[in-house]
Write a structure and sequence with these properties.
The chain has 24 helices and 6 strands. By secondary structure, the protein is an alpha/beta fold. It has 3 domains: 2-182, HAD superfamily/HAD-like (Rossmann fold, 3-Layer(aba) Sandwich); 190-343, Tetracycline Repressor, domain 2 (Orthogonal Bundle), CATH 1.10.357.140; 345-482. It has a 6-stranded parallel β-sheet with strand order 3-2-1-4-5-6, sandwiched between helices. Helix 2 crosses helix 4 (51-61). The radius of gyration is 28 Å and the shape is elongated. It starts with a helix and ends with a helix.
Length: 482
């Protein structure tokens, strides 16, 4: 008998935070910010007219792919089981009706859709009144997740609690009988590590390159300044990574590996990212003030360039790789600025060509993944999968150009001034030749990570090459000790 009642009572399902692990209002605002940033200035006016008007206008300014959204898979499986048993499913959401209808059509399990229509914001008490008018008091069951759903549960027969806090769960239990609870997932250290991209902080070790290249290892003051600069740059980079992830949600969700990033997968709410990014940036600038010199200027330039990359440069063919190479090189320039040290032409030229090669490795690896997925074009990028062989050629050429610059440097007068045994430094050339060739061989075989530097710190051959390179430089500096 209970099963018969369950199958005949309409089951009303909320969307944001319940059926999907994200909020469509937040995502719509982010897409408008990315594609039509000037329209963001109209948001206060639209909000003044009403939240339903705001949602309608944001929806009409953007497109979205319902198939790429982070659905609550456990809930979705259960809903399909309920439908199979003959239960009527209704999607009822405060999201604009255009989005709700598209999602309903994609899933194909809902018999009706109730949503905001530009006049009424179907949330909280408004949703409760609309459902009670349609199905009667206690004439429906409701699946929700937030405090705004409490008035709906108060007039529902049973509650299905999805992804809710302990406080909301308790309120729902006080409002009506709870049929089922889908517990919320906690945001653990692993998720926060991915949000901040802590592994990417390794790149900021490039700030120390000017100090090492100048053989100023005993300069305590410089080490202190560069340590502050490292954390300042890292916090700034994390802020930018968050912005990049927020603006690139749809592209990430269509990527085999990037779809697991916390924001794309819905593990961390996008609203958290919106709040966290400026806080990290403020902390970064506060540390930069303590570094002194021209470091702050280069940090601001890095931030502006990375924002430009996130907003549009990454969608421009070749310009994206050149920008990535500049961003790597900027770390070395900023490191020199932090300790008021001039940079040599050799170091800059070597860095630009080397990092350009690594940028091409990154794009080539992404194209190979897309090619294996049967796609002809990468989403949100300016490349076709057929461009992969050409990128490979340009990338290998750039890498070998970096080694050629290194060879010319080793034949310059600067080497004799810095190294006791400059002839030993020539061993760095074959080491670099091996490493560049190795990286491209791995990329060609489809074994390259999305980020070549992350791959390098995990790859045994790359680590051995780095160790050999460091040993050669050390022996050339102190001389051969018998």
């Amino acid at each position: 008998m209970p099963e018969t009642i369950m199958n005949t009572t309409p089951l009303v399902v909320d969307l944001d935070g319940t059926l999907i692990r994200t909020d469509m209002l937040h995502e719509s605002a982010l897409r408008v910010l990315r594609d039509q940033p000037l329209a963001i200035l109209l948001i206060p006016y639209w909000l003044w007219l009403g939240k339903a008007v705001l949602k309608m206008n944001l929806t009409h300014l953007t497109d979205f792919d319902p198939s790429s959204l982070p659905y609550h898979q456990e809930l979705l499986i259960w809903l399909k089981q309920q439908q199979t048993q003959g239960r009527t499913l209704i999607l009822c959401t405060a999201t604009d009706q255009v989005i709700a209808l598209a999602i309903s059509k994609h899933l194909g399990i809902f018999e009706a859709v109730m949503a905001s229509d530009g006049l009424t914001n179907l949330a909280g008490q408004h949703k409760a009144e609309a459902l009670e008018q349609r199905y009667g008091y206690a004439g429906f069951d409701y699946a929700g997740n937030s405090r705004a759903d409490i008035p709906v549960w108060q007039c529902a027969r049973q509650a299905i609690i999805v992804n809710a806090s302990d406080n909301v769960t308790q309120k729902a239990k006080e409002a009506c009988v709870v049929e089922r609870v889908f517990p919320s997932s906690t945001i653990g250290f692993s998720a926060w590590r991915k949000v901040l991209r802590l592994h990417q902080w390794l790149k900021n070790a490039l700030l120390f390159v000017p100090l090492l290249a100048a053989h100023q290892l005993t300069n305590t003051e410089a080490w202190l300044a560069l340590t502050l600069a490292f954390f300042s740059f890292s916090l700034c980079a994390s802020s930018v990574y968050i912005v990049n992830d927020l603006l690139d949600l749809e592209s990430d969700r269509q990527h085999p590996r990037k779809c697991k990033r916390p924001f794309a997968a819905g593990l961390v709410p996008v609203s958290v990212g919106v709040a966290l990014a400026p806080l990290l940036l403020l902390a970064s600038f506060a540390l930069a003030q303590q570094v002194g010199g021209h470091f702050m200027s280069w940090l601001v330039f890095y931030f502006v360039l990375t924002c430009a990359y996130s907003w549009g440069l990454k969608r421009l063919m070749l310009v994206d790789c050149l920008t990535l190479a500049m961003l790597y090189t900027l770390r070395i320039v900023a490191g020199a600025a932090a300790i008021s040290m001039s940079l040599s032409f050799w170091l800059l030229a070597f860095s630009v060509f080397l990092f350009l090669s690594l940028a091409f490795v990154k794009r080539y690896a992404e194209l190979e993944v897309q090619l294996l997925s049967g796609k002809q074009k990468t989403h949100g990028r300016g490349y076709f999968t057929l461009d992969a062989p050409l990128l490979q050629t340009m990338g290998m050429t750039s890498g070998y150009a970096a080694i050629l610059v290194l060879a010319f440097y080793l034949n310059s007068d600067a080497v004799t001034k810095l190294y006791k045994m400059p002839e030993l430094i020539w061993a760095a050339v074959p080491i670099m030749l091996f490493w560049i060739s190795w990286m491209w061989m791995k990329a060609h075989r489809g074994e390259m990570h999305d980020d070549p530097l992350v791959f390098a710190v995990k790859d045994k051959a790359s680590l051995l090459a780095g160790l050999a390179f460091a040993v050669v430089l050390a022996l050339g500096t102190v001389g051969w000790v018998w």
